[in-house]
Amino acid sequence: MLGMEKRIHALYGDEVGKEADNPKTVERETAGAARAGLALALLAILMAGAAYFGMDAKVSTLDQKIQAMAAMETRMAAVEERAARLPEEVRQVLVADKVVQMARMAEQIAPALTTPEQKAAMTAVMENLMRLGQPAIK
After folding, report:
1. Rounded to 5°, angle at Cα 85 from 137 and 99
2. CA–CA dist 65, 84 (Å, integer)
3. Can you list the pairs that 133-136 forms with residues at least 24 positions away whose Cβ atoms lie under 8 Å?
4. For residues 101 and 133, is the Cβ–Cβ distance under 8 A?
5. Binning pLDDT at 50, 70 and 90, where does residue 20 land?
6. What are the phi and psi torsion angles at 47 (to 5°)?
7. Are 126 and 111 in contact (CB under 8 A)?
8. For residue 137, what pLDDT is reported?
């Protein structure tokens, strides 16, 4: 026999081999492995449940945001519809206001222009804006 085998037989005798083949020992080892497997399976189920509920919460939040965006689009469509039905005078006032805003923006940009071509183009823009801002002759 080898040296290690001699030591084992000297310490434990022949009982070591007999105990490994004993049905009770095999049953205990099998039961321990089964418990470990069951614990891992339960842990995996718990982790899958946590992941599912976490994703469900995120999806429901996303669904609420999508519904809010749909409601916002509906409201915007209603506002655009009402704006299309505004009387002509109100639309002219809104257009005149936009023209005034554009004229102010052009006045702010004009001092920053350096070349004569840019200045001439800005003068033409200002003249066109002035003509647009004047009320239409009926």
Report:
1. 45
2. 28
3. 133/96, 133/99, 133/100, 133/103, 135/92, 135/96, 136/92
4. no
5. low
6. -65, -40
7. no
8. 44
pTM higher than 0.70, yes or no? no
One-letter amino acid for residue 20 of the chain: A
Q: Tell me what pLDDT residue 126 has.
A: 86
66-110 pLDDT, tens digit per residue, is 888 888 999 988 888 887 777 777 777 888 888 888 888 888 888
d(CA 72, CA 84): 18
Contact 132, 99 (CB under 8 A): yes
Q: What is the amino acid identity at position 133?
A: G
Q: Please give the helix or strand (H or E) that residue 136 lies within, else none.
A: none
DSSP assigned state of 137: P
> Within 10 Å of residue 22's Cβ, how many Cβ atoms?
12
Is the dihedral angle over the CA atoms 71, 73, 79, 81 positive or is it negative? negative
